[in-house]
């Protein structure tokens, strides 16, 4: 069994937005190179991960953020969990940790993303996951503080406010 790597929530969102097909298309970034995601968590063999594998994972994860149907979200999340073959265990301080029988770097990364999302969902349910309501944006976001976040960034929020202001002025 292999320990599942920790994937920070901010890194997971960057993966979805930087490599996901829909967010890249909405932002007209399909011809741009993929972003550098910085250190790929503590993952053995991370340097062997290819762009295609990251795009596939980002597209699967994006569905969790974009869908408004809880049944569809549960199906996607359960598929991710089954593929990850996760086994919980307690460490010496009684913290829940995860191990898996998968060994390929892309599968380990998917398992790490699955455990991160399980933590988020355990503390706030599906309402924590969403996509930007900006007119030309489909980026994913996590609403960690629990407010009703509608935009992925201050930039998208400001663009929406400017559009609304200009529409009122006409």
Automatic annotation (TrEMBL):
The organism's place on the tree of life at top rank: Bacteria
Coiled-coil region: none
A Pfam family of this chain: zf-CGNR
Residue span(s) of domain Zinc finger CGNR: 128-169
PANTHER family per record: BLL6575 PROTEIN
Name recorded for this polypeptide: CGNR zinc finger protein
Organism from which the protein derives: Actinomycetospora succinea
């Amino acid at each position: 069994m292999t320990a599942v790597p920790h994937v920070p929530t901010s890194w997971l969102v960057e993966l979805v937005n930087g490599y996901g097909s829909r967010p890249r298309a909405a932002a007209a970034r399909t011809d741009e190179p993929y972003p550098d995601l910085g250190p790929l968590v503590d993952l053995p063999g991370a340097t062997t991960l290819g762009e295609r594998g990251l795009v596939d994972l980002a597209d699967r994860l994006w569905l969790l953020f974009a869908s408004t149907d809880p049944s569809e979200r549960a199906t996607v999340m359960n598929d991710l969990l089954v593929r990850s073959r996760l086994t919980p265990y307690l460490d010496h301080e009684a913290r829940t940790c995860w191990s898996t029988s998968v060994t390929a770097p892309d599968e380990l990364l998917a398992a790490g993303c699955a455990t991160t999302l399980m933590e988020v969902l355990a503390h706030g349910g599906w309402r924590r996951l969403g996509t930007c309501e900006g007119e030309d944006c489909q980026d994913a976001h996590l609403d960690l503080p629990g407010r009703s976040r509608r935009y992925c960034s201050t930039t998208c929020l400001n663009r929406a406010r400017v559009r609304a202001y200009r529409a009122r002025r006409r």
